[in-house]
Design brief:
Blueprint: E1 5-9, E2 13-16, H1 21-34, E3 37-40, H2 51-65, E4 70-76, H3 83-91, E5 95-100, H4 120-129, E6 133-135, H5 149-164, E7 170-172, H6 178-186, E8 191-195, H7 197-201, H8 205-208, H9 225-236, E9 242-244, H10 253-256, H11 271-281, H12 288-300, E10 308-317, E11 322-324, E12 327-329, E13 337-342
Parallel strand pairs: 2-3, 3-4, 4-5, 5-6, 6-7, 7-8, 8-9
Antiparallel strand pairs: 1-10, 10-13, 11-12
Helix pairs in contact: 1-2, 3-4
The structure holds N-carbamoyl-L-aspartate (NCD) and zinc ion.
Length: about 350
């Protein structure tokens, strides 16, 4: 008997951090192995805010990833950023989308937006241009508990954005709560969400039980079990509003295992295999292809990929680390057994 196989249209990653320099060289091949295109987050230092910077970064990614992979570039929104430049970059095929990082919400967000009123004219220009807004949905108010920051963001910011810019395509990135899943489902068609593999696999216990586990720490932070269950239901429901975005966010091992460790989970090596496990466990493999390969491009208004990828049911153990020259990265699921693997 041969192993069960699952063939789907080639997928894309609608949210990834590829970094730059030696780290880019180390991680780009992992994403390119699995995905045809990826939305590449712009939180470099300095962030990607100009058309020229995005063009140059795109070339560096293409060189690191090799042929057959298309990076989709994102503008990093800053207070007062010029809407005309965003629209021009979009029309020129450089900026696929723009990212809203609330200032100081996460890694590389120091230049982020201090108040959405400072980007109102930019958002109006994006709405006009049909350019999607990608949102890191967490408030930064120090009075708000870190586990509540996404739910409070919906009330304070997201609901107003959806109301005030009814024609703006909005992706609520890496949702982690039942509230966010419900908000997106109830919102009009121009609102969608990405979901990471880690938020489908782990709840906050993974980070905090039996010792503090820095490799399970990312932002937005994993929440309690009922939220994980709600995300699994949303991702595997067949709704076109939810699609694959890994939020793979590599940090060197020494910056993860530190007194003040960086936020981010490096899931690029086995992301597709990780998602497949969830769809199988939920009895929803028939919805896997739409989540991985169709809902995203349809939302962005991009063509579906040609070609396919085949996964086969075969146990394999995820290595404890991935190493490249002097960089050591601990992948998501390190030391665990995954049941699917890419066949070819
Ligand atoms: C991301 C990073 O390291 O760039 N970290 C993370 O935990 N997801 C930033 C982000 O997307 O919040
Ligand atoms: Zn991210």
């Amino acid at each position: 008997m041969t192993n069960p196989k699952l063939t789907i249209r080639r997928p894309d990653d609608w949210h990834v951090h590829l970094r730059d320099g030696a780290m880019l060289q180390a991680v780009a091949p992992y994403t390119a192995r699995q995905f045809t295109r990826a939305i590449v987050m712009p939180n470099l230092s300095p962030p990607v805010t100009t058309i020229d910077a995005a063009r140059a970064y795109r070339s560096r990614i293409e060189a690191a990833a090799g042929p057959g992979f298309t990076p989709l570039m994102v503008a990093y929104l800053t207070d007062g950023i010029d809407g005309a430049t965003l629209a021009e970059g979009h029309a020129a095929g450089v900026f696929t989308a723009a990212k809203l990082y609330p200032a100081h919400a996460t890694t590389g967000s120091a230049h982020g937006v201090t108040d959405v009123k400072h980007i109102h004219s930019a958002l109006a220009a994006m709405e006009q241009a049909g350019m999607p807004l990608l949102v890191h949905g967490e408030v930064t108010d120090p009075e708000i508990d870190v586990f509540d920051r996404e739910a409070v963001f919906i009330e304070r910011i997201m609901a107003g954005l959806v109301r005030d810019f009814p024609g703006l395509k909005i992706v609520f990135e890496h949702i982690t709560t039942e509230e966010a899943a419900q908000f997106v489902l109830a919102a009009p068609e121009n609102v969608a969400a990405t979901i990471t593999p880690q938020h489908l696999h782990i709840n906050r216990n993974a980070m905090l039980v039996g010792g503090i586990r820095p490799h399970a720490y990312c932002l937005p932070v994993a929440k309690r079990e009922k939220h994980r269950q709600a995300l699994r239901k949303a991702a595997t429901s067949g709704s076109a509003k939810f699609f694959l975005g890994t939020d793979s966010a590599p940090h060197r091992i020494e910056t993860k295992e530190a007194a003040c460790g960086c936020a981010g989970i490096f899931n690029a090596p086995f992301a597709l295999e990780s998602y497949a496990a969830v769809f199988e466990e939920e009895g929803a493999l028939e919805h896997f292809e739409a989540f991985a390969s169709e809902n995203g491009p349809r939302f962005y208004g991009l063509p579906l990929n040609e070609g396919t990828v085949t996964l086969e049911r075969a146990d394999h153990t995820v290595p404890d680390s991935c190493e490249a020259v002097d960089i050591v990265l601990v992948p998501f699921h390190a030391g665990e057994t995954l049941r699917w693997r890419i066949a070819s």
